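hi! just following up on the protien thing from before. the input was this:
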Amino acid sequence: MADKTVPSMRWGILGTGWVSTNFAKDLMLTRPDAPINHIISALGTSSLKKGSEFLQATIPSHKPQPKIYEDYSSVYADPDVDIVYVGTPHSLHLENCLAAIEKGKHVLCEKPLAINEKQARIIVDAAGEKGVFLMEAVWTRFFPLIRDLTELLHSKKIIGDICRMFCDFGLNFNMASLPSTSRLKNRDLGAGALLDMGIYPLMFASICMDGKVGHEAEETSVTADMDVRDGIDYSDAVIIRYPSTNRIAILTASLLVKSPEEFCRIEGSKGSIIVSGPGTSVPNKFTVVIEGVRTEYKYEHEGMGFWFEADAVASDILAGKKENDIVPWAESLRMMGLMDGIRKQGGVVYPQDEP
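and the predicted 3d structure came back as:
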């Protein structure tokens, strides 16, 4: 009955890796109160075998089964696709987004939107000219936890004047065991800790230290260093200062070690907030500490949580919007520019950076 009473959004999925798999699984969750009926109409993959395995892992048998295409162009051309989800390696985002936009499809592209700000601007300009919806899939920004954390910090000022924060995102990928062709080690594919992991501490800094996005976000000063091996960053350290308030964010990311469960701490004049979870991209609790009294805020939800952003994107498209208020185009461009500057200081240059 729910499918008949709520609007639908028809998705075309590009890629069959971890992120596309979990995104698709979340779209297929049965949520009685879901405001959108998400339908996966098409899958673009490199082989029929991969496509079949992907569908077996993600699409329940009672749901409509998507068409499997052994190329991406057929997904862009499919009339049953409203929006294309780009879950391919970073280096393909520019090509995939432009091709989908050219065919008049809306686009939700995994973060980072591109390899650098130059590429991101090309994508944003194309979406603007074609008049389609575009968003960078910074999924964590849509978690209820982030909404509540933002309100407590900036509206209710629960810890007083914010002074500084520490945030880390690290995972042990056993880099020595990976071949040079791995997405995590291949410079041509935009490998490195910053674009894969560091974007999340940068996101938390923006949320906690500033609370504004895009053109309204404060201009900051940034100091950065990197552990660079074979042209990619294995570990990063970034210090961001916010001149108007003198707030400091100390951020780290690594492909070599896993972060502790308590990965972020925000300190203010009246107390602190500790954010925790199985990973920096999937926070599920924060603890407010004021004068030794600890108050926990715990969050549970079905699936991984990709459906929060999927619902938001679908609602925007159905409302005729071309960009999202939480992750507007200007915010994606700002973050790409910030990461460009960090890479410049750290000494990481991708082939796509060349003139």
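Residues 26 and 304 are 7 Å apart (CA to CA).
The longest strand covers residues 232-242.
cheers
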